[in-house]
Amino acid sequence: MKTLDQLRHSYKQSEAKALEAFQKFLSFPSISSEAEYTPHLLECAGWLREKMNSLGLTTQLWKTSGHPILFGEDLSAGPSKPTLLIYNHYDVQPVDPLELWKSPPFEPAIRNGQIYARGAQDNKGQCFYVMQALKLLREKNGGYPINIKWLIEGEEETGSEGLEGILAEKSQELKADYLAIVDLGIPGPNIPAITLGTRGILTMDIVVKGSNTDLHSGVHGGIVFNPIHALVHILSSCRDKEGKITVPGFYDSVSPINDREKERLFLDFDEKEYHQAFGALPTGGETRLTPFERAWTRPTLEINGIHGGYTGDGFKTVIPAQASAKISCRLVPRQDPKQIGPLVAEYLKSLAPEGIEVEVNVHPGSGSACRSDIRSKGVQAFSKAYEEVFGQPISYTYEGGSIPIINALSEASGSEVILLGLGLADDYMHAPNEHFGIDRLEKGALIMALGILNI
User: Fold this and answer.
1) Taking the CA of residue 8 as centre, how many other CA atoms within 13 Å lie in the half-sphere pointing to its CB?
2) 111: which strand partners?
3) Per its UniProt entry, what is the enzyme's top EC class, as one word (predicted)?
4) Which of 80, 157, 199, 377 has the maximum number of C-beta atoms within 10 A of its C-beta?
């Protein structure tokens, strides 16, 4: 019997029990951005540690400035074998708006082969199939064919500040040949793909102030400059009619994708399917580029939230004292967030009309873009695993999203990065009704197990 068939048979034998455990994992409301959920994060970490212990890993709970980090290892394969460090996270995004969920976000529900819950895809589903892969390998071999280290953090959704703060201290424990970031996706349900890079991220707030109190629009309208008008003007000035960002110096270090790089990417984009899935047309960004080129290889500046004036029921005719917005930039290789942040902040301030004060707060927790090497033995080992499980040739993609800790973790561990995952764009991660396919739990476990055997 082929190795894949053996692994699949073993998985099927314990699938029902595994699904129960996955539902338990999803039931922990491990929201890292809100302090009231700290006890639930600790409870979730405790549950995970028990599971890691059951896999024969020697585990530690690393205390940080924020939520604890789980670390487990089995180095019994010995120094002659390579070491793989696997990264996941157990924290999740908030659930708002709650009224849009079809079932409670922390009461997992199965519908049409999908399991619905906050964190089902990002990142508990992908974390859970790693767990199942390690279980399959132990059952098959009585141990692991290579040295395994597994790190699961609790603050990815808030910038990984706790992990970043202890990387220097824990660098020896983290040493590895390969770093598998299991938090990525594939272009479609039947398209095996490995990600070769992610974009970086930078976030900030802008506050526009005009007066020391809200003003009556009848008395003061036409005299003062409305802060909302000023904010809208500032934000709309950040992009030109072709979708390019107008911040001076923003593109200075950006190189266009070359033909060789473009040839190996999966660039097919079905506009009709996209519109059906999300109700939006792919008309944003730089108009001269394809949708995937815009999402994977070009930087962006997006407005993520805007507030000002009276927004309750009824009507209140005020000129607000201030207006504000939240902004994020996705960055590409060679764009340093420490340089781009001040560039954007100064540009926003320079657009302030007379009589308007502008404050910009660039947040900590930014991260640079990441790229992995297609020639890496680790990337090729998992490429073969994807091909065997899916039964078709591998594709390569980039990821428009960001995992800020990747570069710092790779540097601390001295390892080559492998970017893995089975997420889909329509899994609704970070949105109401997040879900993950039960079939992908199986595929993920098989891919991880085969990839480890291939290294």
Assistant:
1) 12
2) 114
3) hydrolase
4) 199
φ/ψ of 312, rounded to 5, equals: -80, -170
d(CA 173, CA 143): 20
Say yes or no: do domains 3-198+369-454 and 200-254+299-362 share a fold: no
Task: Supply φ then ψ for residue 31, to 5 degrees.
Answer: -85, 115
The CATH class for the domain spanning 3-198+369-454 reads alpha beta
Q: Which pLDDT band holds residue 1 (cuts at 50, 70, 90)?
A: low
Question: Are the C-beta atoms of 359 and 155 separated by less than 8 Å?
Answer: no
Closest CA to 224 of 207, 208, 206: 208
Q: Tokens in use for 356?
A: 């308007």
Rounded to whole angstroms, how far apart are CA atoms 123 and 30?
A: 11
Provide the edge-to-edge strand list for the sheet that holds 109-111. 109-111, 114-116, 435-437
CATH of domain 200-254+299-362: 3.30.70.360
99: nearest Cα among 432, 453, 435: 432
Q: Are 125 and 159 in contact (CB under 8 A)?
A: no
Q: Tens digits of per-residue pLDDT, 201-230?
A: 999 999 999 999 999 999 999 999 999 999
Burial annotation 337-373 (CB, 10 A radius, 16+ → b, else e): beebbebbbebbeebbeeebebebebeebbbbbbbbe
* Catalytic sites, residue numbers: 91, 156
**pLDDT tens-digit map of 343-370:** 999 999 999 999 999 999 999 878 899 9
pLDDT (0 to 100) of residue 263: 74
pTM of the model: 0.86
d(CA 244, CA 365) in angstroms, rounded, equals 25
Please answer whether residues 181 and 403 qualify as being in contact, where contact means their C-beta atoms are separated by less than 8 angstroms: yes
Q: How far apart are CA 438 and CA 12, in angstroms?
A: 12
Going from N- to C-terminal start, the domains of the chain cover: 3-198+369-454, 200-254+299-362
Residue of 168, 204, 207, 205 lying closest to 365 (CA atoms): 204
